[in-house]
Design a protein that fits this description.
Layout: H1 3-34, H2 36-42, H3 46-54, H4 57-82, H5 85-91, H6 96-99, H7 101-120, H8 122-136, H9 140-145, E1 151-158, E2 162-169, E3 175-184, E4 190-201, E5 206-216, E6 224-234, H10 240-246, H11 255-263, H12 271-286, H13 290-303, H14 311-338, H15 344-366
Antiparallel strand pairs: 1-2, 2-3, 3-4, 4-5, 5-6
């Protein structure tokens, strides 16, 4: 590695570590200040609080890595440019890609690291956070009294080898809108499919309204029997509490688990739920590469910023602006994908592709 590459890489790493540390401290301070009354009321031990916030570190790293990378790169190259060191490098015959190679390599390395953390540690961290919070920070009385909003697109795997797809579930009244239940036999062939427009909990069982039950013959899948009911008590053992406990949490699943989960739904007919899960799957793949993309966008701006006095403020403003528009574009893309307007893969990769195109165009025009 050349001396200039070591110099630039060292600066980027130091600023990145400092930025992540500051973000982590801010998360701890803000969260502890917001929940201080509850911690005191529940008499949560200090060692439990330490475990709780340590479990947050992987999540903070994933959520702030893109902005941390961008700030580190912008500060480093803005400083180089303000001291005319970039002019010296270009006079020596180095082009844009040669000058920025340490930053691009760093971005690629961080992207791979975030991908690994997402796959290996985030599911464990999310489970650990929920366990600590439920065991030490939420009283059972508060849990029952707390009002919850309706849950959209509830999907989970239940008893008797059944898959549940629910459009809307109200945890307060236990009312259901749009329910599909797929029951499989031991060979994973569809045995029975139940569709209902609405459902409600009677206190002992689930009652479905405008219900259609389709039974499939074991010998011939094409020979089916369909029955329609205005009202029907469903023969399922899950209670409303089971629905809440067993619902899928995407953050607690890695790519392999989520892909396997989606594959079980392919013959269910719940196209909306499957589409949403596919968007989440592609987002898990695309998200880590945002670190590389956001650096590529910020580098040209850093190399054209030459103000010595305002270099730091300008770099910070550029980082916040790029980060804001990137996450806004990403959110819009995901919303369009879950709304069915874009294919799942395009919705997840919309922001990376858009910002990469803008960055390459800017680099081509300016350098």
């Amino acid at each position: 590695m050349r001396i200039i590459d070591r110099y630039v890489t060292k600066s980027i790493i130091l600023i990145f570590i400092s930025t992540i540390f500051i973000f982590s401290m801010m998360v701890v301070l803000i969260d502890s200040a917001v929940n201080l009354d509850e911690f005191i009321d529940r008499k949560v031990p200090v060692e439990i609080l330490v475990q709780y916030y340590l479990a947050y570190i992987p999540t903070v790293l994933v959520q702030t890595s893109s902005l941390g990378c961008l700030i580190a790169v912008l500060f480093t190259f803005t400083n180089l440019n303000s001291q005319n060191e970039v002019i010296v490098l270009r006079s020596a015959g180095m082009n844009f890609w040669q000058i920025t190679k340490p930053a691009l390599c760093f971005g690629l390395l961080i992207s791979c690291a975030i991908f690994l953390v997402n796959e290996k540690y985030i599911p464990l961290a999310e489970s650990r956070i929920r366990a600590i919070k439920n065991e030490n920070m939420i009283l059972e009385v508060d849990r029952k009294k707390k009002k919850q909003s309706k849950i959209k697109n509830l999907t989970f795997y239940g008893l008797k080898n059944r898959l549940y797809f629910i459009d809307s579930f109200d945890p307060n009244s236990f009312d259901i809108e749009g329910i599909t239940i797929i029951e499989y036999d031991k060979q994973q062939n569809i045995k029975e499919k139940t569709h209902a427009f609405k459902g409600s909990w009677t206190g002992l069982a689930w009652k479905a309204f405008q219900c259609q039950v389709t039974n499939y013959a074991e010998s011939d899948i094409n020979k089916t029997r369909i029955k329609v009911y205005q009202q029907k008590l469903l023969d399922i053992e899950e209670t409303p509490e089971d629905f809440l406990r067993q619902r899928i949490n995407i953050t607690s699943m890695n790519i392999r688990q989520l892909r396997k989960y989606i594959s079980r739904f392919k013959d269910s007919g719940a196209t909306r739920a499957i589409n949403n899960l596919k968007v989440d799957l592609h987002q898990k793949i695309a998200f880590p590469f945002g670190n590389m993309v956001i650096i590529l966008v910020g580098l040209p701006m850093a190399l054209v910023t030459r103000s010595r006095r305002a270099g730091t403020l300008i770099s910070l403003a550029i980082a916040i602006g790029i980060g804001f528009f990137y996450y806004l574009s990403n959110s819009v893309g995901l919303a369009l994908g879950k709304g069915g307007l874009f294919p799942p893969i395009l919705s997840a990769w919309l922001a990376p592709l858009l910002f990469t195109s803008v960055a390459l165009y800017f680099i081509h025009e300016k350098f």
